[in-house]
Automatic annotation (TrEMBL), chain A:
NDH-1 shuttles electrons from NADH, via FMN and iron-sulfur (Fe-S) centers, to quinones in the respiratory chain. The immediate electron acceptor for the enzyme in this species is believed to be ubiquinone. Couples the redox reaction to proton translocation (for every two electrons transferred, four hydrogen ions are translocated across the cytoplasmic membrane), and thus conserves the redox energy in a proton gradient. It is a peripheral membrane protein. It catalyses: a quinone + NADH + 5 H(+)(in) = a quinol + NAD(+) + 4 H(+)(out). The lineage of its organism: Bacteria, Pseudomonadati, Verrucomicrobiota, Opitutia, Opitutales. Gene3D superfamilies: Cytochrome-c3 Hydrogenase, chain B. Transmembrane segments: none annotated. NDH-1 is composed of 14 different subunits. Subunits NuoB, C, D, E, F, and G constitute the peripheral sector of the complex. This is NADH-quinone oxidoreductase subunit D. It comes from Ereboglobus luteus. The gene is nuoD.
UniProtKB/TrEMBL annotation, chain B:
It catalyses: a quinone + NADH + 5 H(+)(in) = a quinol + NAD(+) + 4 H(+)(out). It comes from Ereboglobus luteus. NDH-1 shuttles electrons from NADH, via FMN and iron-sulfur (Fe-S) centers, to quinones in the respiratory chain. The immediate electron acceptor for the enzyme in this species is believed to be ubiquinone. Couples the redox reaction to proton translocation (for every two electrons transferred, four hydrogen ions are translocated across the cytoplasmic membrane), and thus conserves the redox energy in a proton gradient. GO terms for molecular function: NADH dehydrogenase (quinone) (non-electrogenic) activity; NADH dehydrogenase (ubiquinone) activity; quinone binding. Keywords: Cell membrane, Membrane, NAD, Quinone, Translocase, Transport, Ubiquinone. It is a peripheral membrane protein. HAMAP family: NDH1_NuoC. This is NADH-quinone oxidoreductase subunit C. It is found in: Cell membrane. Its main location: membrane. Transmembrane segments: none annotated. Its EC number is 7.1.1.-. InterPro entries: NADH_DH_suC, NADH_quin_OxRdtase_su_C/D-like, NADH_UbQ_OxRdtase_30kDa_su, NADH_UbQ_OxRdtase_CS.
């Protein structure tokens, strides 16, 4: 809409300027009469991490008002979900938080399985946790690198990409794709782990930890980085809760809530890991939380590799599962019954019983929730995606009030959002 | 769903229903348990929703509004729209989730009291629900569209809105005046394949390009032209 952005107090400012010009200075007249200006930051701006537009009102270099404008990447994923079968929607979940597609895949199928009452064997659950944690490392790495770049450091960005590339090579070997992985299926995963893959993940972890310490050392005691982040954009515990923040943004404010601990799924309760929390809730705390979470993810990954269960990586062959989970390809290609079953599930979708379910998974950006309403059959009646970035961004107007223009860049970096997730 | 889950769920739901009925005797009849596959869930009347949600936040530790959305039960259903709140307890009973739902009174002009005063998180969620479903949240401080542009005439998540979209004016009239272009709905012939809720009836539920599959020989239906 080509509407001009105006601010209510402009009129008062102009009146004040007119009084000064006429020589009628009031007693409390400011030495400098500043005029507020409006500035659009984005939607295509390197620091807005995607197509986010911030409508700013600036008083000199101070931000007196900030209004996020979103929707530039809105693709109607929820509408699409309501028009296709549950299995067909798996690839669409890759496009939500496209920096951690594996974690989205896992969250989505867990939500559907919860509604269907489907159980998966331990090996499948362990594989899912493993890939979700690798996705967390990958996502946090990019969050770390782009935050560093936002605050003026370029080297960490290059370092993290080197590590992230190694992860992507592992993902490619496992799923066949680097970005759009579409790995999980309702009732299982697409395929079992390739031979020797766990060993290569283990090798990655061994060389990654020293590199991670090196990377974090570049920023943690960096004078410029600390000046840009310490004490900036403090989110109090009350605000973090009231605005529905989750993930490292909530934990940075000192609330140790982690769905992996507090509402465990996929066997997270078996693994030992710590939930890092901040003390102040500023940009620096959020950075520290992500750094520690990467260490903890490596810890989880190592435990999984050490105790990876054997057995099937798809749902047990029960009557219920046969109406929901497409049989593995080797069975489809060798048995007529399985071929027919595969055809039925492909065409009509998994037959999910009527009901409602809401499942949240602890994704790298926060809690990714799926609320599914089913009327039976292979297509959801309603699917709401509760995206962590959407909730995170809603606190921006409050956070940005009174900060300096350059702080906004640091704030955006510290919140680590992704617009594909926000707009859906 | 496993029996263990449904049993716990039922017990927890009846506990909450009893507590709420006792606390809000004037709405007791309309506070009912809601069928749910997972979390305890409760139906409440729209006019008491704000009071009940405030009570749940203050007295039962549901500090966080995890999610807020609506369900459209399609044209002809009554009540047609249901607003659903998912509350989460973070510090007092970590991980305990509760679903609260309320039906909108009017099927054509749905309204619901806003809870943005209780949780600021609701501000954006309600704007999104208004944008997508056309539910007006009364008392909302700044109820504007959030994902679609201001002035967009439709509510895309309503069931009658076609997946392909509808012909419409461009967001910016100046661009439209200059380019003489309009937003054109996507032809769906050849995909993406859509499916409908069917009960193993292949003729109905098989994924296919549905009624939005217009082409030169099969022109677009009049009602889809903006």
């Amino acid at each position: 809409m080509a509407t001009e952005y105006t601010f209510q107090d402009n009129a008062a400012k102009n009146a004040s300027a007119a009084a000064v010009a006429a020589g009628h200075l009031p007693d409390d007249a400011p030495i400098f009469d500043t005029e507020k200006m409006s500035l659009s930051m984005g939607p295509s701006h390197p620091s807005t991490h995607g197509v986010l537009r911030l409508q700013l009102e600036l008083d000199g270099d101070d931000v007196s008002h900030c209004e996020p404008v979103i929707g530039y990447l809105h693709r109607g994923d929820e509408k699409i979900a309501e028009n296709m079968t549950y299995n067909q929607f798996v690839p669409y979940t890759d496009r939500l938080d496209y920096l951690a597609p594996l974690a989205n895949n896992v969250a989505y199928v867990l939500a559907v399985e919860k509604l269907a009452g489907l159980k998966v064997p331990p090996r499948c659950a362990a594989i899912r946790v493993l890939v979700a944690e690798l996705a967390r490392i990958s996502s946090h790495l990019l969050g770390y690198g782009s935050f560093a770049m936002d605050t003026g450091a370029w080297t960490p960005f290059l370092y993290q990409f080197t590590e992230r590339e190694k992860l992507y090579t592992l993902f490619e070997e496992l799923t066949g794709a680097r970005l759009t992985t579409s790995y999980t299926r309702i009732g299982g995963v697409t395929r079992d782990l390739p031979e020797g893959w766990l060993g290569r993940v283990s090798d990655f972890c061994d060389q990654f930890l020293p590199r991670l310490e090196e990377m974090l050392a570049m920023l943690t005691r960096n004078k410029i980085f600390m000046d840009r982040t310490v004490g900036v954009a403090v989110i109090s515990k009350e605000d973090a809760l009231a605005y529905g923040l989750t993930g490292p943004n909530l934990r940075g404010s000192g609330i140790g809530f982690d769905l992996r601990k507090d509402k465990p799924y996929s066997g997270y309760e078996q693994y030992e890991f710590d939930v890092p929390t901040g003390t102040v809730g500023d940009c620096y705390d959020r950075y520290l939380c992500r750094g520690e979470e990467m260490r903890q993810s490596v810890r989880i990954v190592r435990q999984i590799i050490k105790n990876m269960p054997d057995g099937p990586w798809y749902a047990d062959d029960t009557e219920e599962a046969r109406r929901i989970f497409a049989p593995p390809k080797d069975k489809v290609l060798t048995k007529m019954e399985e071929l027919i079953n595969n055809f039925m599930i492909t065409t009509t979708g998994p037959q999910i019983p009527p009901g409602e379910a809401y499942f949240e998974a602890e994704n790298p950006k926060g809690a990714l929730g799926f609320y599914i309403v089913s009327k039976g059959g292979g297509v959801p009646w309603r699917m709401k995606i509760r995206s962590p970035s959407f909730c995170t961004l809603s606190i921006l107007p409050k956070l940005c009030k009174g900060v300096m223009m350059t702080d906004i860049v640091a704030i955006l970096g510290s919140l680590d959002f992704v617009m594909g997730d926000c707009d859906r | 769903m496993s029996d263990a889950i449904s049993e716990t769920n039922t017990t927890a739901t009846s506990g909450i229903v009893a507590t709420l009925r006792e606390k809000f005797p004037q709405s007791a009849e309309k506070i009912t348990p809601r069928a749910s596959a997972d979390h305890p869930a409760v139906n409440v009347p729209a006019d008491a929703a704000v009071a009940i949600l405030t009570y749940l936040r203050d007295e039962h530790g549901y500090e966080m509004l995890s999610d807020l959305t609506a369900v459209d039960w399609a044209e002809g259903s009554s009540p047609r729209f249901t607003v659903v709140w998912h509350l989460l307890s973070v510090t007092i009973n970590p991980g305990v989730c509760l679903r609260v739902a309320a039906d909108c009174a009017s099927d054509t002009e749905p309204e619901m009291p806003s809870v943005a005063g209780i949780w600021p998180a609701a501000n954006w969620h309600e704007r999104e629900t208004f944008d997508m479903f056309g539910i007006v949240f009364t008392g909302h401080p700044d109820l504007r569209r959030i994902l679609m542009w201001d002035g967009y005439p439709h509510h895309p998540l309503r069931k009658e809105f076609p997946l392909a979209g509808m012909d419409d004016e461009l967001p910016d009239p100046e661009v439209e005046a200059e380019t003489k272009a309009r937003l054109v709905a996507a032809p769906m012939a050849g995909g993406p394949f859509v499916a409908s809720t069917g009960n193993l009836n292949l003729a109905e539920s098989e994924p296919r390009a549905k009624d939005q599959s217009w082409s030169e020989e099969n022109p677009k239906p009049e009602n889809l032209k903006g």
